[in-house]
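Q: For a teaching handout, I want to show students what a protein-ligand complex looks like in token form. Below are the inputs, and the small molecule is farnesyl diphosphate. Please produce the holo structure.
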Amino acid sequence: MKASDLLKPANREEAELLEKVDPKRLPNHVAIIMDGNGRWAERRHLPRVAGHRAGVKAAREVIETCARLHLPCLTLYAFSLENWRRPQAEVDFLMRLLREYLKRELPVIRKNNIRLLVIGRSAQLPEAVRKDIADAMNLTARNTGMKLVVALNYGGRAELADAFNALLDHIRANGLSAFRADEQTISDHLYTAGLPDPDLLIRTSGEMRVSNFLLWQIAYAEIYVTEALWPDFSRARLLEALVDYQKRERRYGGLGSPRARATAAGNVEGADGRGGRSDGSGRSSRPARG
Ligand code: FPP
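A: Here is the structure, written as tokens, with farnesyl diphosphate included.
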């Protein structure tokens, strides 16, 4: 199957990019730090909120594209714990926008068999937002297609603190004095329990930061930073990110393909033909981490 069997290209650029996407090697989970709404608006001499409105449009296109490509999981960083520091009017607008989005897009989300999940300290969100989220999650709970995870009032360190406290509660409640946690135990107590870790982390607007997003889960994620501001992150920009991801070799701290292993061992044959190491130790000179 070709990617263009899943998604009708709207123009030549999309058609060319779709040709390059292998639908069998898509990431299981794409996580996106949507950044640059304010700058997008400023460049047009518009109020910041106009950037957020345009950002919703971009989010809609990305969500629908990922669902059509049968991506198992997409996480969007919509509101961080730090975002409360913005002017109250902007915070209120973002909350209203989210409710508006849920109300308007729910039929499309349901039609596309998408399951909505929200991660973060939801208890601190305004009552009306909490109710709309709960309704939307209930209405999509049985959907079997893409999981759309919206990070709202989310912080990566707060998530880890919440996970450790949940574990401590469990230990105390059950008197487990000999309890020891392993990596799986910690993963199982995160907001994202049961979801695959992101394979691809996208950040828009050129900033080279992870901004307290999914700190535990992105341990081995490929990172893709684009200069495009979030409202300009069109379907074509998403396809570019997927093409770039598919060109990368993921090693998880190992040596990857036989070709890479041969290079590391200084074995000329099967490597790049330009010779191997010069110190003759036979050990890799590459750092051990992935
Ligand atoms: C970053 O722009 C974006 C946000 C603060 C998040 C809000 C996201 C949206 C409104 C997109 C819609 C999302 C959903 C799930 C419907 P910024 O204000 O930080 O931009 P700046 O860095 O240029 O100021």
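A: Two things your students might notice: Residues 267-290 have pLDDT under 50 and may be disordered. Strands lie at 29-33, 73-80, 115-119, 147-154, 200-203, 222-225.
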